[in-house]
Known about the structure:
The protein has helices spanning 2-8, 15-37, 40-46, 67-84, 88-105, 112-124, 135-139, 151-170, 174-177, 180-192, 200-203, 206-228, 233-251, 256-262, 270-277, 291-310, 322-325, 367-375, 377-395, and strands spanning 11-13, 147-149, 340-349, 356-359, 401-410, 416-419. It is α+β, with helices and mostly antiparallel strands. β5 (401-410) and β6 (416-419) form a beta hairpin.
Amino acid sequence: MQKIKNILFEEVDNSSLALYRMMFGFLLSAEGFGAIMTGWVRRVFVEPQYNFTAIGLEWMQTPSGYFMYGVYALLGILGICIMLGYHYRLSSILYFIIWTCVYLMQKSSYNNHYYLMVLLTGILIILPAHRYASLDAKRDPNIASDTCPRWITLFFILQLWIVYTYASLHKVYPDWLAGRTIGLWFDYKAEVMPELAFMKGLLTNSDFQLVISYLGIAYDGLIIPLLLWKRTRWIGILASFGFHLFNSLVFQIGVFPYMSLIFLVFFFPVEVVQKRFFKKKVIEKSIPTSAQKQNLIIGFLAIYFILQIGLPLRHHLFEGNVFWTEEGHKLSWRMMLRSKHGHANFYVINPETKKKKHIKLKKHFSEKQIRGIIKNPDMAWQAAQFLAKYYTEKHGFKEPEIRARIRVSLNGGPYRVLIDDDIDLAHTSWKLFSHNEWIHYYGFGEDLKY
């Protein structure tokens, strides 16, 4: 145990950590201000009547749509504070709390990098990233230090390894291996994005789509070993830039590709980082971690990584195919794995008159939310709960029934019933830890005639 402690808490040059703080803070600020300027806040929080929160947190509705502009502006400011190391601890705590709340408040725009940002802003709180090249260290020399414990670098490497490993393993399924999944994404992007016209022929080429499918598996599975081994590090660096810049161009997924690239600072020898970015730095002062803190940090890291390894496997505890049911999909690094589209018909039944009325979803939800309702059974269930409340309060129905028939195509396959109207969703509870039997699911194989 002592040998492990010696490795984890050995003091090393903190140049990589300081540089990471600056770049990550900049991206956090860009995420906040960018969400406002691109209209994302308006589309997700201002225009919809109802936000699809994490189940059980339906009370976390937006106080006011325009209130969210202030929230995201504050995130932008806090990102700058983190970048500069100004009131770093307070800024990190506030960013983590606000971002986590925003993450839990809506899931119609769920992305894995939003979850990753929850994790990374949370770990910022305990990292001594403000002890060098920061306004805090300049204001208070007592907190200044030129080193940090080695576990910090190892933390980022292991976290990335988990993310990429699961991303690679999850891709090994029939539709991805056939190039079908990535082909649907590329065909769609080439059609709707005029800025990709110059590469439309390439994106829609089936051979290219198949090659990219297998390169995706290979990149995710091999990138961390490539970066760790000195002889292949530059291959890994070039592959990282090519992979993430291509994703940024084609999929336009915000700051995520650049967030992935800044982790590269932890794979370079710290002496290289120091010589390139902090040429005048001299190691003069260190603040070692006390024995008591060492035990707390080891305990925290053990629990944290057990959860990180375990959560992506939890879908195996549920009956059914996660590609259809979506049970266990989130928090699992299942990135860009499937394409689902379909149509939904919702009905309300007045139990007193037994009259059945078709519900126009566009009256209650945005187009993006409707797409989410069609693809995600949990959102369909929440929509039913909202509609039942609406017809009770606005139309005086007593215990209205809400029924839905949703048919979905997975990865271009045949339309199949995902939710049938033989169940009253308004009076059906949602099971968090077991399969919800009213969600239909299917397998992969020749019987589907893809």
